[in-house]
Design brief:
The chain has 251 residues and is of the alpha/beta class. Helix content is 42%, strand content 16%. The protein folds into two domains: 186 residues, Zn-dependent exopeptidases (Aminopeptidase), CATH 3.40.630.40; 46 residues, no CATH class. The chain has a six-stranded mixed β-sheet, sandwiched between helices. A two-stranded antiparallel sheet has the order 6-7. The model has no long low-confidence stretch (mean pLDDT 94). The chain binds zinc ion.
């Protein structure tokens, strides 16, 4: 089974400039991040869509959420902002999920909070909810829910009103690390750990042997298994995947 994920880059064009780091715009960095995340998720075998084709063109928030129709997961990517005297100190990762914890949404939500906070080196907030008069308070989440998407989230990658967080997110290399972290958490949630070719939930010695045999052509893998065996995602199962599997198994 191939899972489908819809990614939404928060905002468009040059929106939400950081007061602490003027070069930082939430709209620009989240656009880059959602493309990197798309590429990393694709390596796990997910089918990934994006809500908008062009960075400079907006789409109403509810409409973006509605793009999640037929998808297993919807994520809208953001960095947060806060005003007032405490702004410079606020450096927390939060995720917003279904107000009624539909399908146990907080499980993946909290896993994302922890992993992203650790990766960014900032505080871990919570998987939060916000209910409004029309159900979900946030338009993107309301849209995703209205089309029956089972899991939908807003990720706030800390606060761009914080100098440390804005500088961190401004570095494209960090965005790549962030995309890899998020893809790994999502893949693990859906039971797709890279290298776990026999899909028993962990990369063990049997997987290492399966990858070795696949490399030598003495075993036939299914299409899904091939994607899991291709650890570095270069499109073929080669000696590097075998060595990487062995390395991860020994760790
Ligand atoms: Zn935002």
């Amino acid at each position: 089974m191939q899972y489908k994920i819809m990614l939404d880059a928060g905002h468009y064009s040059t929106r939400n400039q950081s007061p602490a780091v003027p070069e930082y715009y939430e709209s620009k960095q989240m656009w880059k991040l959602h493309l990197l995340l798309k590429s990393e998720l694709t390596k796990y075998g997910f089918i990934v869509g994006t809500t908008r084709e062009h960075q400079g063109v907006d789409l109403a928030v509810t409409k973006r959420g509605e793009m999640a129709e037929g998808y297993d997961l919807f994520i809208s990517l953001h960095s947060n902002a806060v005003s007032g005297s405490g702004a410079e100190k606020t450096d927390r990762v939060d995720v917003y999920a279904a107000y009624d914890d539909k399908n146990g949404a907080s499980v993946l939500g909290n896993a994302l909070v922890r992993a992203i906070a650790e990766r960014m080196g900032v505080s871990a907030g919570k998987c939060k909810t916000r209910r409004g008069e029309r159900g979900e308070y946030y338009g993107v989440l309301r849209g995703a829910r209205s089309v029956g998407c089972p899991l939908y989230y807003i990720i706030e990658h800390s606060f761009h009103t914080n100098r440390y967080a804005a500088l961190w997110l401004l570095d494209d290399n960090n965005l790549l690390l962030l995309a890899r972290t998020e893809a790994a958490v999502i893949a693990a949630y859906f039971g797709l750990t890279k290298g776990d070719v026999d899909m028993n939930g962990r990369l063990d010695i049997y997987d290492v042997l399966l990858i070795k045999r696949a490399y030598f052509g003495t075993v036939k893998l299914t299409e899904e298994q091939k994607r899991l065996a291709d650890i570095n995602g270069d499109g073929e199962i080669d000696v590097f995947d075998y060595l990487e599997a062995k390395r991860r198994y020994m760790e």
